[in-house]
Specification:
single chain
Amino acid sequence: MRCGFLCRFLWLWPYLFYAEAAPIQKVQDDTKTLIKTIVTRINDISHTRSVSSKQRVTGLDFIPGLHPVLNLSKMDQTLAIYQQILTSLPSGNVIQISNDLENLRDLLHLLASSNSCPFPRTRGLKTLEGLDDVLEASLYSTEVVVLSRLQGSLQDMLQQLDFSPGC
């Protein structure tokens, strides 16, 4: 009788193990889909094509650039900075993108917890120095550069997710 229970348990083991992997793959797929959606939203804003993500604009050095290797923690930090900047912009074009970034950060946290990555939620970022001055001086340029660099960062993140980034 004991062997029967043990044999049934061992027979079910591969199915139990596989059932755990499916939701993680779904979260990763949802993350990639949301990144593609945000990139599409940025492309739909016509004036974002006028500036390269690599272009340097005086006073906008606080905007994250492209990173060759991103782990989940760095992705979250980068998205938190972009989200803070986007919420400071008065343009109605970026409200949905900002909301999407929040959802993307939540998905990254799910991926991190599935990999047992302990990193704290980056909520209370200090106010970015000079942001108000830059927005006052060149609101349009700031929005264009932020969206252009965000798009590049998202595309980097999309590529990194294919390689299962670390903590």
